Amino acid sequence: MKILVTGSNGQLGSELKKISPAYNYKWYFTDRNEFDFFQIDRIGSYLTKINPNLIINCFAYTSVDSAEFDEESANISNHIAVKFISKWCNYNNCKLIHLSTDYVYDDTSTIPIKEDNKTNPINNYGKSKLSGDIACFFNNPDSIILRTSWLYSSFGNNFVKKMINLMKHKEQLYVVSDQIGSPTNAADLANVIMHIINSKKWRPGVYNYANKGAISRFELANNIKEICGFDTTINDIKTDQFQTKASRPKYTVLDTTKISNIYNVVPIPYMDSLKKCIKLLKNE
After folding, report:
1. What is the pLDDT at residue 262?
2. Are 90 and 131 in contact, with CB atoms under 8 Å apart?
3. Span 127-174, pLDDT tens digits
4. How far apart are CA 214 and CA 173, in angstroms?
5. Strands (E), the chain
6. Is residue 66 part of a domain?
7. 65, 124 contact by CB (below 8 A)
8. What is the largest CA-CA distance in the chain?
9. Which terminus of the chain is less hemmed in, N or C, by CB atoms within 10 Å?
10. Distance between CA atoms of 130 and 120, rounded to whole angstroms?
11. Catalytic residue among 103, 125, 209, 270
12. pLDDT tens track for 42-65
């Protein structure tokens, strides 16, 4: 089987590349330099040239704040390109696993969010990702969409690496305490994707996956501090005290019951995965 991974230099794409030698598939890893989503008219010819049996679409415009003033780029990457990819998959009998986000859901939940909960994103990034999800299923109902939250990794830029870097150089930090979610190690998500592929049980639909746990960003920062042994003072502030260009949802803890029941996936506790990632970063 030929597997094409888009966005291969991102967090999840890098984790998939790392574990790919353990799987006996023919892999193609592509980034924006090779497969530019902004050249919409070339997407079909590029996919036809490789002719994959499965596409794992990790590519996305992920700068939440930048999407507020560059809505066009976010829409092309997260929506229009997905529409063309899903069309190609439908016409060419190619399986598609498309990665999405907790930011597509409504901002009002106070209990873990299920896949059929109301979608009502509060920023342009979430809106563009939701449009991509809708286009994906409209053009290829056989797709699998994986929605995840608060992704981090030893690769790329993310909250965990940012906090470690800040704590190395600052005596005091302010971190939001009223945004609650489930930190998710991209390495775990990569293993879940391979588990789905190897299960030989293709069940189209939307699935949530995140590491087990529900904490605030303030609590996560303190976890990082404790694991790393920093002395930085971390102060909690509220979302409305921390100005960002894009609004952030207050609660996006994901219910993972569906993926557990259908694919026998057992989410790993977030602290276990956080310690593992920080250990990797220390060794580097």
Report:
1. 98
2. no
3. 999 999 999 999 999 999 999 999 999 999 999 999 999 999 999 999
4. 22
5. 2-6, 26-30, 54-57, 95-101, 144-148, 151-152, 172-176, 180-181, 184-185, 205-208, 215-216, 233-237
6. yes
7. no
8. 57
9. C
10. 9
11. 125
12. 999 999 999 999 999 999 999 999
Q: Which structural domain range is residue 72 located in?
A: 2-157+185-211+253-268
CA 13 – CA 18 distance, rounded (Å): 9
Residue 214 has pLDDT above 90, yes or no: yes
As a whole number of angstroms, the distance between CA 70 and CA 147 comes to: 23
| Mean pLDDT over the full length of the chain | 96
What is the count of structural domains for the chain? 1
- The CA-atom distances, in angstroms, between 202 and each of 90, 95, 144 are 15, 9, 8
The residue among 212, 215, 214 whose CA lies nearest residue 265 is 212
189: three-class secondary structure by DSSP: helix
Nearest in space to 35 (alpha carbons), one of 71, 78, 66, 4: 4
Residue 66 DSSP class: G
Q: Is there a contact between 130 and 121 (Cβ–Cβ < 8 Å)?
A: yes
Q: Is the pLDDT of residue 258 over 80?
A: yes
The per-residue pLDDT for 31 is 87
Helical axes 270-283 vs 186-198, angle rounded to 10°: 110
Instruction: Report pLDDT for 183.
Output: 97
Domain assignment of residue 239, yes or no: no
Between CA 241 and CA 251 the distance in angstroms is 17
User: Is 89 inside a domain boundary?
Assistant: yes
In a domain, 132, yes or no: yes
φ, ψ for residue 145 (rounded to 5)?
Answer: -110, 125
pLDDT value of residue 277: 98
Identify the H or E element spanning 4: strand 2-6
Structure tokens at 30: 């592509």
Q: What is the CATH number of the domain that holds 126?
A: 3.40.50.720
152 is catalytic: no
Tokens, residue 67: 């999407």
